[in-house]
Design brief:
Elements lengths: L1 H8 L1 H14 L4 H15 L2 H10 L26 H15 L10 H7 L6 E3 L20 H13 L4 E9 L2 E3 L10 E9 L1 H5 L5 E8 L1 H7 L3 H20 L1
Parallel strand pairs: 1-2
Antiparallel strand pairs: 2-3, 2-5, 4-5
Helix pairs in contact: 1-2, 1-4, 2-4, 2-5, 3-4
Length: 243
């Protein structure tokens, strides 16, 4: 949350701090990354986190059992060049400043305050990537509790979109969501599985997006038609870029 606050309300300061860190790493990138990572775990400074996100493998945060950031650096790159990072930061700040409220609360409190005219997007840690030695997230959400909260949104006619599980090839991650919630499920191709590639396979990963019944009714368009239009629009954009 501190990083988002800086990006939105102090873009010049966070951009300058990132540029300083990026330049200081030159010629000693691996050791410098480890140094910044240690300092972040002690201080939780947002500029350190931004640098780590730009340098770590797949821009994916990983934690050890103590809750400390422990993702390794991607030694093939130095992170986003400072001017491009600054451009992104100022663009986000201009878009969000005065329109966004950043909070850190229990998700149930946020859902309780939502109204039928809102659109809620939920992106909790996916099923199958929390616990049991998997450190992709510091913690997950309780499945039954989340399903209960979604049911409450339905009863209050609050539209929502949920990203929650997926599959790689024939391997499915997570439990099937209750049919009584009436959600529409869409599979989105997320590219070739890194793990499968390392093992000599060629499986693709698909992520599931669930759209609430109330949102479908409000839009008047089936989710699969929306996806078809999005894919068509993306293909058109790529064709224009190629030209």
């Amino acid at each position: 949350m501190a990083l988002w606050q800086e990006i939105i309300h102090n873009p010049q300061g966070i951009a300058a701090s990132y540029e300083r860190l990026w330049k200081e790493q030159q010629g000693n990138e691996r050791e410098y990354y480890n140094h910044v990572r240690d300092k972040f775990n002690r201080t939780q400074r947002p500029d350190y986190l931004l640098y780590l996100l730009a340098r770590c493998v797949k821009a994916s945060v990983r934690y050890n059992p103590k809750g400390e950031f422990n993702q390794s650096p991607d030694n093939r790159r130095l992170g986003r060049e400072p001017q491009r990072m600054a451009d992104d930061i100022f663009a986000v700040s201009n878009l969000f400043r005065g329109r966004t409220k950043v909070t850190s609360k229990d998700y149930k409190d946020i859902l309780q305050s939502s109204q039928s005219e809102d659109l809620v997007y939920l992106d909790p840690p996916y099923q199958g990537v929390c616990g049991n030695g998997d450190s992709r997230y510091y913690g997950g959400v309780d499945f039954e509790e989340l399903m209960h909260e979604l049911g409450k949104l339905n009863r209050r006619h609050v539209p929502f979109i949920l990203s929650y599980d997926g599959r790689t090839g024939d391997k499915i991650f997570g439990r099937e969501l209750p049919r009584e919630l009436g959600m529409h499920r869409i599979e989105v191709e997320a590219g070739r599985s890194t793990q499968s590639t390392l093992l000599g396979g060629s499986d693709f990963t698909y992520e599931s997006v669930y759209v609430s019944k109330s949102l479908v009714e409000r839009l008047g368009v089936h989710p699969h038609e929306l996806m078809r239009r999005a894919v068509t629009q993306k293909a058109t954009q790529l064709e224009l870029i190629a030209r």
